[in-house]
Design goal:
7 helices; single chain
Length: about 160
């Protein structure tokens, strides 16, 4: 039942790669927020950065609010289903699965809306928008560390 050295090494490498990718993601979000004129610390706060980003690019707050609500409902039902032995456990699991599906759908909506609006506000082409949808981490790095400027006044 013990892990041998290669298995442990691969798990540690995976954890290191995951942590490194999240650090790069946070740094690129901070750079994008700086280009947008927002405070950089707001890019680090997990759900609040969606509200700030969508407010800056002119999208209603309904989308991130529903996303956040579905995430918390899914988490709450998962926790309740783990710790309860009552007959309502199946109901909690069903609600968890449904809210996870809603969370997935809204995550896709947020991905598309954010990619298209952010590309518009940075003056990028439709090919860049497609790249933002398909390979978001790479194209986010391009927005953050590239020469593009935030063109809010020119888009509106």
């Amino acid at each position: 039942m013990f892990l041998d050295f290669p298995d442990l090494l691969s798990i540690l490498f995976f954890i290191f790669a995951l942590c490194l990718s999240q650090i790069v993601f946070l740094i690129s979000n901070c750079r994008i927020f700086k280009k947008m004129g927002a405070r950089q610390y707001k890019a680090v706060i997990p759900f609040y950065h969606h509200f700030v980003l969508f407010k800056t690019i002119g999208v209603t707050r309904v989308i991130p609010a529903v996303y956040t609500g579905a995430f918390f409902a899914s988490t709450l039902c998962l926790v309740l289903s783990c710790f309860t032995k009552s007959p309502e456990r199946e109901l909690y699991i069903a609600i968890c699965v449904f809210s996870a599906f809603v969370l997935f759908v809204f995550s896709l909506i947020i991905l598309f809306v954010k990619a298209f609006k952010l590309s518009d506000y940075f003056g990028k082409s439709s090919k860049f928008k497609l790249g933002m949808v398909l390979l978001q981490p790479l194209f986010t790095l391009g927005l953050a560390f590239g020469r593009s400027r935030f063109l809010k006044n020119e888009v509106e």
